[in-house]
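Training component of the fellowship. As part of building independent skills, the fellow (R.M.) carried out the full modelling exercise for a liganded target. The chosen ligand was 2-(butylsulfanyl)adenosine. The inputs are recorded below so that the supervisory panel can assess the work.
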Amino acid sequence: MNDAQRVFELRQAIDEANHRYFVLDQPSITDAEYDTLIRELREIETRAPDLITTDSPTQRVGALPSAEFASVAHLQPMLSLANARSDDELLAWAARAERGVGGEPIDWVVEPKIDGLAISLVYRDGVFMRGATRGDGIHGEDVTPNLRTIGSIPLRLRLAEGEIAPAVVEVRGEVYLPLEGFARVNEERAAAGLPTFMNPRNSAAGSLRQKDPAATASRPLQMWSYGIGYSEGLELASHVDALEWMRRHGFRVSSQTTTHDSVSAALAACHAWELRRAELDYDIDGAVVKVSSFDQQRRLGEVSRDPRWAIAFKFAPTTAITVLRDIGVNVGRTGALNPFAVLEPVVVGGVTVSMATLHNEEDINRKDIRIGDTVIVQRAGDVIPQVVGPHLADGSERNPPWRMPTHCPRCGTAVEKPPGEVKHRCPNRACPGRGFEQLTHFVSRAAMDIDGVGEKLVRRLVEAGLVAQPQEFYRLTVDDLLALDGFQQRSAENVISSIEASRARPFGRVLFALGIAHVGDVNAQLLADAFGSMRELLEATPDQIAEVEGIGPVIAESVAGWLADPENRAVVDALTAAGLQMTGSRRATRPPAGPLAGRTVVVTGTIDGHTRESIGEYLGERGARVTNTISASTDYLLAGAGGGSKRARAEKLGVPVVDLGELERIISAGA
Ligand code: IVH
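Fellow's submitted model of the complex:
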């Protein structure tokens, strides 16, 4: 087989895998298998650059940052939507539409109104050529390189055997950031001292309008396609057909879009969306009702910029105005002090809200939020509500700006704020405020991964006096849970069996779950690999621990100090007795492979779109050994916002300092 044939085959296989992963949400191959395909394709393309095409899956990230976005004219204006704010307004609109088509029956389509950013994608002869924002509806901004990084946007149409692509087709839809991604991006921005995004829509817009496509690539953007604009060589009779066409040709189309032959059924579907709203992993601010038939759409036409054949049925707003009664402070697992808003209870999007997150002192003062202010509160899906900012009447009396207490609200120890960090900390390792956070960390996904035991249940278990220390999870019985409100036999059994299952988590995770300061999952794994068992680790001196490559003296002190504490020793003994894995390591079972195999990478600062854990995983999956201290043998320092001393040390030692974009290019090149 020659290179051209192999490239063709590889692209087909990769496109198929992408489609299953990003569009259908049904992954068909493992990450490692996917990486192998990509790597082979890159190798051939590096060797034979003539074979590179813009629709090659290797070209999703790789475009260089651009200075600005060019303005482009849409092939067909992008209209907006009129709103119906009540059942009556929707019914009145539908009655006008029915009159407009002379009383013919109408098929009504109901779909979610996604709160993101409207986008137009132009495909010529089946290949994605240009993508633009809506802009003013006539002209938008060309954001093609950034859109290419979104996995659910096909770089070319999926065609059936022998099918010829339409000469031109413009697919429209909404790009959005799933709520989890939104929360994560905000946490990271807050940690790096950057302003947080007000809502998922702003964060989607901000993520898409990055000058560097690699920055966009690091945000988990998604797209729902909801319509076809301009086309040549495509004959479709209705919106229902258009949705089906898009679905068949590789686009992500909501599977929950419904068609109805009566307006009352369509209205009921709108109400159903409102009820389902909080369960979605994206924000919707309404439902859209559309007349399906294109012939009827043409006859109905438009008024100013709004089509008469579609309307947005708006839901109750997700913002509300209330009074900020107080600002409280929680102590996190590692002693970080987390301020939160105590609000006059208010209903936001159907849920009563009385608390909201406030990230840190800097963020509070940047937003100029003060105790006693009337404030705007926003809630999106299940994301913890946020205080957007003050909502002040002219000349209202205000309290002075808020300051972090000088002493820990739980134990009274003087708080510290390490230079360069935005979080204040309680340095007291025995601070009682840390207990609850420690327990939730212990059960969390990246640690013991105890399914069905989340923050809420932990809180109830603590309040009921059933669990104060991690080992006590393993003593819980079905009867203990049945004694709590709301537990049925079945749900209690499920919780107990997931606690049982967690006994099998590898030693590295157990070490991470213990919540030793400075021991994130990467360091935990390094320690597990180096010592092989808890017994060896317990016997090690701080110097021996510091000898582990990647573990510096600060971490070594922290680990040794933690292990020397008799209370912690008791926890370890009890967990050992409970049957947790105290030996073995993951490394032994998985030799490093990937474009970064054999390379040592140190990470500093906040990497856009990643948590500490996810960037470690990302690098590990690509074969890199991730360590924490820079030495002459470090291959790269991956630096994000806020990294300081490591950068200086890397420069001194001549270790290349790269950002995620550069590292991705290195990975792409198969270095
Ligand atoms: S149809 C003429 N369908 O809502 C049709 N729009 O206010 C106009 N939107 O700019 C678009 N979900 O950003 C349509 N399922 C959906 C939508 C949707 C969200 C947005 C879109 C548009 C705005 C109109």
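The panel noted the following from the submitted structure. The first helix runs from residue 3 to 23. The first strand starts at residue 71 and ends at 73.
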